[in-house]
Amino acid sequence: MVIADAIGPSWDLVADYQIISQYHFMHNAFLAATLVACIAGVVGYFMVIRSQSFAGHSLANVGFAGATGAALVGASPIVGLFLAGALAALGIQVLGLGARQTRQNDIAVGAIFTLALALGYLFLHLSKNEYGNGIYDVLFGNPLGISDGDVRVNLWAAVFLALIAVGGARPLLFASLDPEVAAARGVPVRALGLGYLIVLALVVALAVQVIGVLLIFALLVTPAAIANVLTTRPVVAIALAVGLGVLFTWLGLVVGFFAPYPVGFFITSFAFAAYIVVRGGRWLLPHWHNVLAAQRMHEVR
Amino acid sequence: MAHTQTAPHSSHGKTVPPIIRVRGAAVRLGNRAIWDGVDLDVAAGEFLAILGPNGAGKSTLLKTILGLLPLTAGRISVLGQPTRRGNPAIGYVPQRRSFDAEVRVRGRDIVRLGLDGDRWGLPLPFLHSAAARVAAARVERVIDMVGATAYADRPIGELSGGEQQRLLIAQALVTEPRILALDEPLDSLDLANQSAVAGVIRTIAHETGAAVLLVAHDINPILPALDRIVYVARGQVMVGTPEAVITTATLSRLYGTTVEVLHASDGRIVVVGQPEGEEVSYHGHR
Predict the structure, then answer these.
(1) A174, B48, B201, B256: least surrounded by Cβ within 10 Å?
(2) Exposure string (b/e) for B182-192, b if CB count within 10 Å is 16 or more?
(3) Cross-chain residue pair B117–A187, CB shorter than 8 Å
C-alpha cells in the first residue's frame, strides 16, 4: 500500500494501534470488513452444511458480470453484483442445481459461471476507458478504499440480514440437514433454498468490496469449514465461523497496512493457513490417540 | 402384546373412533391409477404393516395419510381432521436416507430439530430456561428409548446405518405422536441391525401406545408385533390379519395369477410364484 513506505510497524501494539487509528480510511476498512466477516460467517456455515460452496462461488463469478455490466450503464457495481447474483440464484433454483452436488450439477454450474465470466470480460472490453482501473477492486477487493457511504450500506445490510437469520436460521438448518422430514413437517424447503441463495447473492455483493469475487471463498467458506471441523454444535460453529472470519480480516488489515502487499492476499493466506492447521490436526489426532494408548499399554505392563 | 386389537373396538365393546379413517381413496399419477377404492380404519395403538411388490404404491399410501400427496378421489381423516402437511400427531421416518460422512452435526441436534425445527425465530435459552430444560429432557428421553444414548453426541455422519436409523426414529418420536409412519425402516440394514431396530419399534409401539404404519419389504422381523397387514398390489388394497391375507386364495386374487403360499413345518410361510419373480418369505407364528 502507499503508506507502507512511510511507516513500518513498531511491534509495540499500542503504538501500532495509535498509528492505524489515525487514518479515517482504516476506521472504515475495519468497520466494513468486520461487518462483512460477521455476515459471511453465518451464511458460510449454511453453505458448508448445504454442500453449496460451488454454487456460492458461481454466484460470485456471475456477480463479476453484474459489476462490469453495471459500470457499463453507469450504475453502482454493488447493485449490479446483487442483481446478477439474485438472477443466478433464481436460475440455480429453477434448474434444480442447488440440490446436493452431483457431477451433472457441477458441470452445469461450471458452464454457467464460465459464460458469466466471459460476459463480464465483454462488458469490461466495452467500457474499458472508464472502468479499467476499477476491475482489480472487483476481482480482489479494496478494503482500504471504502467510503463512509459504503460503511453505512454494510451496516444496514448487516442489521437486515441479522433479522433474517434470527427469524429463519432454525427452519433453514432443518431444511438443510434433513429436507424430507422438514418438508413433511411443513417447512417450505424450496422457498428457503431460494431465499438462502438470494441472501447469499446479497452477501457476495457486500463482501466484494472487502475481498473481491475471486478471493471471496476466504471469508465465506474457509472460516465455516474450519468451524465445522472443530465443533458439532451448529450454534457454536456459527459463532466460531464469525470469530475466525473477523480474526482473519483484522490480521489481514493490520499486516496489509504495514506490508507493501495487498490486504486480500493476507486475509486469504491466514484463512488458508488456519484451515491447513485444523485439517492436519484432525488427521493427526487419531494417530496421536493411538500413540498415547500404546504408551499406556506399555506402562501397564 | 397387551395393546393388540385387530378391530377398532375397545375391549368393553364400546366403539372407539378410528385414529385414521380412509374412505374410497384413490390416487392417479397421470393416466395410471396407483390404487383406488381403498377403505381402512386404524385404531389407536394398532400395528400395521404395508406390504406389496415394488412400485405398487406403498409409500404413496403413507404419503397421502401424511398429507404430502393429494388424493384424486375419496377422503382420509387423521384424528377426526382432514390430512394436513406438518401434523405433529404423526411422526414420520421417510424411506432410507443416510447422512453423508461429512455431516458434522450431533445426532442429538438432528433429534432436536424434530421437536421444534419447523418453528421460525430462535429460542433464547436464558429467557426460557424452563422450556429449554423440558425440551432437552424430551430429547434425552426419546434418545434413551431407542437406545442411542451412547452415541447421540457424535457427528451423525460418522455413525453406522443402524445407529442413524435409531436416531431418526427418535426424531420422529420426539413430538410424542399418536401415529408413527415408517417407510421401509429396516431395508438396507444388515440382519443383526434389522432385528435390533425392529425390536426398538416393537418396544416403542408397546410403550407409547402409538399406532404404527410400517412399509416393509420383508416383514420377518416385525411379524410378532403385527396386528394387521395392508397388502398393496395391482391397484388394489387388501386389509386383514397376516393369517387372512397371506393365503393362496387372497394373494392369487390380488395378483390375478396363481400364487402359492406354502406353510413350512417350522411355522414359516413362503410365498412363491409372484409375477415379478421375486420370492418373499414370511414367518408365520402359528
Answers:
(1) B256
(2) bbbbbeebeee
(3) yes
